[in-house]
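Protein folding task:
====================
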Amino acid sequence: MKKIIIILLGITLIVVLSIMAMNLKTGAKATDTSLIAFAVEDTSTVDKIEIYDSFSDETFSVVRNKEGIWTGENGECVQQNITQMMLETMNKITLKGYVPKAAMDNMKRVLMANHKRVKIYQNGEWSKTWYIGHSTQDHMGTHMLLETPDIKSDNPVIMGMKGFYGILEPRFFADPRRFQCVNMFSYKRANLNEIEVINRVTLDDSYKIKINGPDDIFVSSQGKEITNINKDNLTFYLNGFENINFNQPNFTLSPKEIDSIKNSTPDYELIIKGTPLNYELDLYRRFDPEYNLADTVVYDPNYLWGVKPDGELVRVQYYTIGPIIQGKTVFVDQLQMPN
């Protein structure tokens, strides 16, 4: 009888120990997974992304509206491709490796001192937060730390992205200028009523186009009618007013420098009267930042400074705006120039 009792106790002890071992293994697996579970499997449920940059002390949030369009938190227009890049990163992020134990304490201090915090919301609820630090020495991984409503990791890990070779930190930023839409104006030819270009660099290249109908277009320069117009080229010119964008916001000039530009006379003025709104753009030549020969003024052949109707100063690519402000070279038939 004693032997049976001993056998039963032994079996019971083995079962209990097995259950405890399984629980410990399961618990360890859950904890390990929670440290690296950065990925968002269904990014269609992400409806808000809040980014904080500890270095610049800036915060910017984007939200998905009912139509599925991403905007700033106050409804500002933002570039959709930027949020798509972030969502792609959330979906494809993967573990690259673990931080060596000897380097862990220093890595944690560095990451918490300088990081980008990305709070991810799904279906209106906070789901997880990424703390994004600096890259590995080979620039093939990024030190990151994860926080969820259930747990915050104590130790950073090294993360990468499927199909991407590089660091993840530049894919997230909090500077609102990098999010803003770059569109200036867009007019179909049928919606244009009048175009005036004042060219103070070459005054004779100024002109005004009055459009009274498809076959009733009057072109003048400094009050005098221009008769040698190539109509096909003029039609081509008028078709070029759709989807005109600036290159980027101002990242270089100080407020004092901006005021100095605005208080000076524009080199070019573009005045558009059309449907539904009119548009005015002041343009200023930009000194070539790569040319520093003393006593020589050289202008940048690629970019101009532009002041939009709302007063914002932006950098405009000459490739985009040049054909519009140099229209006479397009639609005036040089072969028929009067003597």
Confidence is low (pLDDT under 50) at residues 15-34. Residues 40-178 form one domain. Helices lie at 2-36, 80-92, 101-113, 231-238, 255-262, 318-325, 328-331.
